[in-house]
Design a protein that fits this description.
Helix 4 links the parallel strand 5 and strand 6. About 35% of the residues lie in helices and about 20% in strands. The radius of gyration is 22 Å and the shape is elongated. It folds into two domains: about 170 residues, P-loop containing nucleotide triphosphate hydrolases (Rossmann fold); about 110 residues, K homology (KH) domain (GMP Synthetase, Chain A, domain 3), CATH 3.30.300.20. It has a six-stranded mixed beta sheet, sandwiched between helices. A three-stranded mixed beta sheet has the order 7-8-9. The longest helix has 18 residues. The two termini are about 15 Å apart. With about 325 residues, it is α/β, with parallel strands linked by helices. The structure holds guanosine-5'-diphosphate and magnesium ion (MG). The site of magnesium ion has 6 residues, from helix 1.
């Protein structure tokens, strides 16, 4: 809950550090995967939120001597469109207010134009920066030395330290957390240590579903509808063509105040709910950049709007 963010959590060790880390890099270098790996669990659906002004996803790491708040940056969906502009925009907005930048490149490939471009941008920003050669699991022993040399050369004048890691397998991640912690200023815990994510995506998903409800029902179901995302789970995709890949299974409840509204929302033989679900599923898939299985329920809760517990459950935290 957001109010937690305002409160320091005592006691903490002397010399405790805390602050914000932005993960920056070309699409597909593994930023979201690394956020999840560093945090230790799937904090959120990966690849958030291109082209929206919503909050960025934040993963939270709490160790005995530091708290790191990781800001993932949006994926760029159509690289052939306005690539430069979007790279600038997403990278700039991410590094505006952070204490340190983690600049990811694909270590298993030689540097590309995008990497040099981002490096140029970071140089102007003068934020402490660490370079990560990710996907190091894909680099063979024979290759590794020369590959590292290429990147050292590319970033030579910056004096940014270079680390190697595998966001997928976890190699190098502990070292990275220590290195990042050392770059943060002395400061208190900003979130309770058990929190791993500030979870805005849950609310965004709820909003996307609510949007479809409004789209399909027009004036019939006005403000008395609310959506609660109960569960987001990564499960095996049973679809034959998916070959064991995972899918995000989302369970959400649509709350209504009147029995008649429930009838409208479900529709004849469930047809309305099906349309809403289809529409929302497409939106959510765009948002998280991966397949989604969406299960919707309609629940009658008379006067939910005047129940404080219900309201905060739904993310309305009061004025
Ligand atoms: P982002 O666009 O930078 O957020 O990249 P993602 O985190 O979505 O990752 C893009 C793809 O690279 C996914 O298929 C990941 O599974 C894969 N990937 C990420 N990190 C690694 C890694 O360290 N090793 C390998 N082999 N694959 C990785
Ligand atoms: Mg991503």
């Amino acid at each position: 809950m957001t109010w937690n963010a305002m409160m320091p959590f005592e006691p903490i060790a002397k010399g405790y550090r805390s602050g914000f880390v932005a993960l920056v890099g070309r699409p597909n270098v593994g930023k979201s995967t690394l956020v999840n790996k560093l945090v230790g669990e799937k904090v959120a659906i990966t690849s958030p939120i291109a082209q929206t002004t919503r909050n960025k996803l934040r993963g939270i790491i709490s160790t005995s001597n530091a708290q790191l708040i990781l800001v993932d940056t949006p994926g760029i969906h159509k690289p052939h469109h306005l690539l430069g502009e979007r790279l600038v925009k997403s990278a700039c907005s991410a590094i505006g207010d952070v204490d340190v930048v983690l600049f990811l490149v694909e270590g298993d490939k030689p540097p590309g134009k995008g990497d040099a471009f981002i490096a140029q941008l970071l140089k102007q920003k003068r934020v402490p920066t660490l370079i990560v050669l990710n996907k190091w699991d894909l680099v063979s022993k024979e290759q590794s030395e020369s590959r590292e040399e290429i990147y050292k050369k590319l970033f030579k004048e910056t004096q940014w330290p270079i680390y190697k890691c595998s966001a997928k397998e976890g190699y190098g991640c502990d070292l990275l957390i220590t290195a990042l912690s050392n770059e943060l200023p002395i400061g208190p815990q900003l979130y309770p240590p058990e929190m791993v994510c500030d979870q805005p995506e849950r609310l965004i998903i709820a909003e996307l579903i609510r949007e479809q409800v409004l789209k399909y029902t027009r004036e019939e179901i006005p403000h008395s509808v609310a959506v609660n995302v109960e569960r987001i789970q990564e499960v095996k995709n049973n679809n034959k063509s998916a070959k064991g890949k995972t899918i995000n299974a989302i369970l959400a409840t649509i709350l209504v105040e009147k029995k008649s509204q429930k009838g409208i929302l479900i529709g004849k033989g469930g047809s309305m709910l099906k349309d809403i679900g289809q529409g929302a599923r497409i939106q959510i898939q765009n948002l998280i950049d991966g397949p989604v299985y969406l299960e919707l329920f309609v629940k009658l809760v008379p006067n939910w709007r005047s129940k404080p517990g219900r309201l905060s459950e739904l993310g309305y935290l009061g004025e």
